[in-house]
From TrEMBL:
SMART domains: HTH_LUXR
Listed Gene3D superfamilies: Winged helix-like DNA-binding domain superfamily/Winged helix DNA-binding domain
Domain HTH luxR-type as annotated: residue spans: 242-296
Protein name: HTH luxR-type domain-containing protein
InterPro entries recorded: Sig_transdc_resp-reg_C-effctor (IPR016032), Tscrpt_reg_LuxR_C (IPR000792), WH-like_DNA-bd_sf (IPR036388)
Signal peptide: none
Length: 305
């Protein structure tokens, strides 16, 4: 495994460096022959080392390297100093964000420009558009088939903004993180609702990994909000505790998922799912899954009554 990539020294550069440390004084041509490299390959590796002054070239003594503890400590210290300076510069930018936000809000308030009701977003710009809409809107965020994770979402959660996330069982297990996550057997398409003002959805219904569109028509956005809430009501909670696992297993059973798919969706083993189903069958005094389903329907009818 290459260890010097953080210094922008690739595997070839590291190989040559170790060769010089082990055999000091050999000429570059001799190292090239031993390593079996071409002249351009060994020359490129040497330039990486010379850029950090890890290797010196002498016509009389060949390639020489200083003691690596001193040489690498010097390079690492210089890189750390540059990193500290860069962090200070970035901190100043972060401190100025509120001022730029004020300018943006003032511009939006005074602007007479009407945003388009439909705006195309290329696949490579979807993440940036998501972050922009997250910062520019208010209200609950509803993510259907789209991970809500991103650089700006942590601050939104810390500020108390609600984020709900629907994940398809067919997409495999997922880490819920700090989000309110539920699992659905299948999702009709991918979209995100930002409050009740804007929706970001796949440009082609049900199509994965393609362009998106931003929708601002209130009626259209309201339809997406309603669709999400209906899907949410029938989805299974992500397993966290024993009770939530039981609830999740039951919900996914109702949706027709097989044991293997339920296990993947809940992030547990197949054995755990089957044991939980067996426990439920014993609890309700039945011998088959069909009988269990009937018992559960009967119990729900009694609860509703």
């Amino acid at each position: 495994m290459a260890r010097l990539t953080a210094l922008e020294i690739g595997p070839d550069g590291e190989t040559l460096y170790r060769a010089v440390l082990r055999q000091p004084g050999l000429a570059l041509e001799r190292h090239r022959a031993v390593l079996g490299w071409s002249l351009p390959q060994v020359s490129a590796a040497l330039e990486e080392l010379r850029a950090h002054r890890l290797v010196r070239v002498s016509g009389e003594t060949g390639l020489i390297a200083d003691h690596p503890r001193a040489a690498l400590e010097r390079v690492v210290s210089a890189q750390e100093a540059q990193l500290a300076t860069r962090r200070q510069e970035l901190a100043r930018v972060r401190d100025a964000i509120d001022a730029f936000v004020s300018d943006y809000v003032a511009g939006q308030t005074l602007s007479t420009t009407t945003l388009p009701s439909r705006e195309h977003v290329e696949a490579g710009d979807v993440a940036a558009t998501y972050e922009h809409l997250l910062a520019a809107t208010a209200g609950e965020v509803r993510c259907c088939g789209v991970s809500p994770a991103g650089p700006g979402v942590a601050a939104q959660l810390a500020a108390g903004r609600s984020v709900r996330w629907l994940h398809s069982a067919t997409d495999g297990p997922v880490d819920p993180g700090d989000f309110d996550l539920r699992i659905a057997a299948v999702l009709p398409t991918r979209f995100v609702c930002f409050g009740v003002d804007v929706a970001l959805t796949a440009a082609e219904w049900g199509s994965p990994d393609r362009d998106f569109v931003v929708l601002r028509d209130p009626v259209v956005v309201a339809a997406f909000v309603e669709l999400f809430d209906r899907l949410w009501a029938t989805a299974a909670p992500m397993a966290g505790t024993s009770d939530s696992l039981t609830t999740g297993v039951l919900e996914l059973m109702r949706q027709g998922l097989k044991d293997e798919a339920i296990a993947r969706a809940q992030g547990v083993s197949l054995r755990t799912v089957r044991r939980r189903i067996a426990d439920l069958m014993a609890e309700h005094g039945v011998d088959t899954r069909f009988q269990l389903a009937l018992k559960l329907i009967e119990r729900e009818s009694t609860d509703d009554g």
